[in-house]
Amino acid sequence: MLTARDIMSREVHTIDLEASVEDLARRFLEVGVSVMPVLDAAGRLQGIVSETDLIARDQPLHIPTVITLFDWVVYLESEERFSQQVRKMTARKVREICTREVITCSPDATVPEIAALMVEKGIHLVPVVEQERLIGVVARHDIIRSMGNAS
Length: 151
Prior knowledge:
The chain is α+β, with helices and mostly antiparallel strands. Helix content is about 35%, strand content about 25%.
């Protein structure tokens, strides 16, 4: 059975955790990908960032609906979501907009396991990590390519 090691892309376009969002935008345009792993100075995977994360900075700010009851202010929506939205809109560094809880796989994960993970979590790219190091990525097109080569 094919594994991540068999189908992963080994040449991975990454971005540094401390890069500016302007550098990120330029990098997306230069390399033509829509998702990139985020690495720290030591080369360890710290997050993942997508063009959607970058675009979210330019969306209109939605002020949460509140009601007042006596001297209390009650938020009808999540205060945390509002705070996250403000942080992303004012972000200057990749670390401020990237997703830190990254779904990864080992090089020995099977293609069906990776495909199920992508569908279940609604993700397009799975970093392949071995001993805390990024060694490749499996994107949806890698899985589709493996189906075409399986015959």
